Amino acid sequence: MGERSFWHDRRVFVTGATGVLGSWLVDECLRKGASVVALIRDWVPGSLLVTSGNHRRISRVAGCLEDYDVVERALNEYEIDTVFHLGAQPIVPVANRSPRATFEANIKGTWNVLEACRQVRCVSRAVVASSDKAYGTSPTLPYTEDTPLRGEHPYDVSKSCSDLLARSYSTTYHLPVTVTRCGNIYGPGDLNFNRLVPGTIRSVLAGESPVIRSDGTYTRDYIYVRDAAFACLRVAENMGRSDVRGQAFNFSNEKPVSVLALVKTIIGMMGASLQPTILNDSEGEIRHQYLSSAKARDVLGWQPTYSLEEGLRDTIEWYRDLLAKGGGLAAGGQP
Fold this sequence. Notes:
The chain is α/β, with parallel strands linked by helices. It folds into two domains: 3-186 and 222-251, Rossmann fold; 196-220 and 255-288 and 307-324, Alpha-Beta Complex (UDP-galactose 4-epimerase, domain 1), CATH 3.90.25.10. Helix content is 41%, strand content 14%. The chain has helices at 3-7, 20-31, 48-51, 68-77, 92-97, 99-119, 154-173, 196-205, 225-237, 259-269, 294-300, 308-324, and strands at 11-15, 35-40, 59-62, 82-85, 125-129, 177-182, 184-186, 211-212, 219-220, 222-224, 248-251, 257-258, 277-278. It has a seven-stranded parallel β-sheet with strand order 3-2-1-4-5-6-11, sandwiched between helices. It has a two-stranded parallel sheet with strand order 7-10. Helix 7 (154-173) links the parallel strand 5 and strand 6 (177-182). Helix 2 (20-31) crosses helix 9 (225-237), helix 4 packs parallel to helix 6 (99-119) and helix 6 (99-119) packs parallel to helix 7 (154-173). It is globular, with a radius of gyration of 19 Å.
């Protein structure tokens, strides 16, 4: 069965649809002929969901993850078949400043979605987006799916909890749910400029030195947003398999890079001669983390299609175009 025949006319529910991954996932679902319903808390006119015009091609439910009744009503009335739960408060510094709101959105929001899926019988699969941050700090790298989940800081804890909630619903209630754990997602459409990649690009476009919060030696792996969207679809398409349902899968390009090296790469690709400013005042972040995607390769046949350089090239061009259109990038960002 081809991909288009799988998704054609399938009713899909997406949380976090105005985020960078959600916007791209909605686009891919529409391309494959799915009927998409999105839960939208805030109207984000600059999001890729809106600027692409895709918001006019989907059904929109106004509400937030913390409101169980809204989630259940949407799944029931739209007779949803597949759920992609991507919605979350995703920014580490915001989580450190406001842990309660982060826990409400990321933990309560996840159990609301899972419980609604359990109650609404038409749901046949759910994909829950966790994160590499769910693993917390580990003495052994790269993380594999067997690495214990032991987040310590607020955002990391929220993802550990949402991940474990998905496992609980799978084990106890046999809910058809699978978890994705991606490395750092980047790409066109990311409007969170306190993230490293968009913040650095914005600074360079403004002719300002990019600001690094940490000492620059922190290491991460990165995944281009379209590869992350493909990963979500691949998981959902294979949910009927016993070696996929109830499992967790890591997705990354498996090429970790330091923060300083990535910033210098972006500066070089943009033809600038700027030097980054290193603040060395980062708190509540894991120093080294990167993933093994061996399980995704072996079980799902997934692998990234974009190298870091290819993804960055497309991303830089998107932000250049946004600036040329007066997209409000003139102020320097602080990744």
